[in-house]
Design a protein that fits this description.
CATH topology of the largest domain: Ribosomal Protein S5, domain 2
Structural class: alpha+beta
Largest sheet: 5 strands, antiparallel
Shape: globular
Distance between the termini: 37 Å
Order of helices and strands: EHEHEHHHEEEHHHEEHEH
Radius of gyration: 19 Å
Number of strands: 9
Helix content: 25-40%
Length: about 300
Amino acid sequence: MAVLGNGEAHGACSLLHAAGLGYGASVALDLAVAVRLLDAPSKRTLEDPDGLLKCVLAAWSNAGHPFPQDRSAEELHWAVASKIPPRQGLKSSAAIAVAAIRALADATSIEIEDAETVAIAAQAQIESGVSLTGSIDDAWACATTGWKLIDTQAETIQEGVLLESPGPSSEDWYVLLICRGDREHRPVMDDFVPHTAAFQQALSALQEGRELVALTWNGRAMIGVLGDLDGRKLTNDALMNGARAAGLSGSGSALVIVAPKVSKPTCERLKKFFDSRKDGITVIETTFLSQVSDE
């Protein structure tokens, strides 16, 4: 078994769910994903219940790119190593799609720009049914650092970028991910309509450069969309315990809790509070991936 190509990406969390207003934004998180393209099946079982990687191959080919060594799609295989909890709103599908596209580019010695990577990833996610909108904002966040505000109706991927920011500094902010298992169901577009006002608050906050305020407003909106009473209680508990921002990411079920690193007692209190729960919660400590921290 030979490795034909390697690709990497990372996870992200929502600042504005694209299904709410047609505008979306996600911010990069330090949750690594590595994908290898192989010439034979890996010994490890590949979990791809939605057929996303098959759709990546189709989208890659539809974009006019060749497969390595003149192989067919059936002769290509994958291995995935991911630190992103799947199906919890932390952009695991977008990250795997981005990393897989980069592995294909590596295997074929093709220089591919981030915008094209995002376009192919969006097509693969739509075809596999893992996204309502193509998750263009998610793919940007998984492929680059910081965040971009995206118009999902724009004619091109480049024209869709309305605003961009280096994102919150990893040196300043402590991030806890409260993982509660696989989401129970995916919302449909009609579920978002009653919560337009909260999504508008998140959009306004992003336009003003207040990304953590947007995270909280978007999280409130998504809790309403999903009817997630436990999520509402947990985010309220986090804010009562000193979090600067708290909200549901994606379509759930993970919650993102943010606190200033300078306040060590607050960070320790939040970690202890969620670690002490015995109801199936897993707590992950991570950081934002900002352009500032990269530099």
